[in-house]
Amino acid sequence: MFIYIIKNKIAFYDDPEDYTAKKLYKKLLKEYGCEPVIIKLEPDENNEYEEESTDIFNKKAESEDVPDARNETITAYTDGSYNVKTGIAGYAAIIMAGDKEETLSGSITDPELTSMRNVAGELQAVLSVIEYAQQKGIKKAVICYDYEGIEKWYTGEWKAKKAFTQSYRNRLHLADMQIEFQKVKAHSGIDLNERVDKLAKSACGM
C-alpha cells in the first residue's frame, strides 16, 4: 500500500502505477508545487496492516515537512544553436535551484522555426525553462542569456513580427511567475554560459 501525503491532502493506493494514483500525484504536484511524501506500508503474514500503521492516515504534512517550491528561485543559463549542414536548431538550459543543477536540451526541426536559425533555439531554451518552473510550481526564474532578443522581445523594445517571437512574448507574459533577465557576454569564459553553449550545439549535432 502506498500513501501520498502533502499539506493535509492524503490518499492511498495499492498500486502507485494505477492511472488514478498517477493523476492524483500530478494534481498534488501542480497544486502545491512540491512532490508528495510517499510512504509504503507492508502487510503482515495475514495480509493485514499493523494497527499503529493506521496512525499515518491522521498525519498532517506541515510546510516544514514538505519544502514549498513556490518560494524558490531558479537561475537558468540558456542558449541556442543552428547546424547549417542539417538545418536543425538546438536549444539548451542549465538550471540552478539551490545546490542542485539540472539540464534541459532538445532539437527543432520545424522548417518554419528553423528558418530563424539559432534564434529559434534561443527562444525555445527560455520557454523550456518557464515550462520547467511551472511544472515545479516555482514562482521566480532568473534567465541568463547572451542573445539580446531574449529580453527585448519580452519587454517590447523589439517588435515581435514573426509568429514564433509573438508566441514567445505572449507565453512569457501569461506565465504566472516572476521572470528576470541578466545579460551575459558570449564566449567570455563564464563557465555555465560556455557549458550551455556546448549543450545547444550538441543538441543539433554539432
**Measured on Cα atoms, how large is the radius of gyration?**
21 Å
Question: Tally the helices: what do you get?
Answer: 6
- Elements, N to C (H/E): EEHEEEEHHEHHEH
Biggest sheet character: 5 strands, mixed
Uncertain segments are 1-14, 34-41, 49-69
Give the terminus-to-terminus CA distance: 48 Å
Structure description:
A five-stranded mixed β-sheet has the order 6-5-4-7-8. A three-stranded antiparallel β-sheet has the order 2-1-3, covered by helices on one side. The longest helix has 19 residues, at 118-136. The chain is 33% helix and 27% strand. Mean pLDDT is 77; it is low at 1-14, 34-41 and 49-69. It is globular and about 65 Å long. A hairpin with a 4-residue loop joins strand 4 (73-83) and strand 5 (88-97). Helix 3 packs parallel to helix 5 (163-174). It has 206 residues and is an alpha/beta fold. The protein is built from six helices and eight strands; from the N terminus they run E-E-H-E-E-E-E-H-H-E-H-H-E-H.
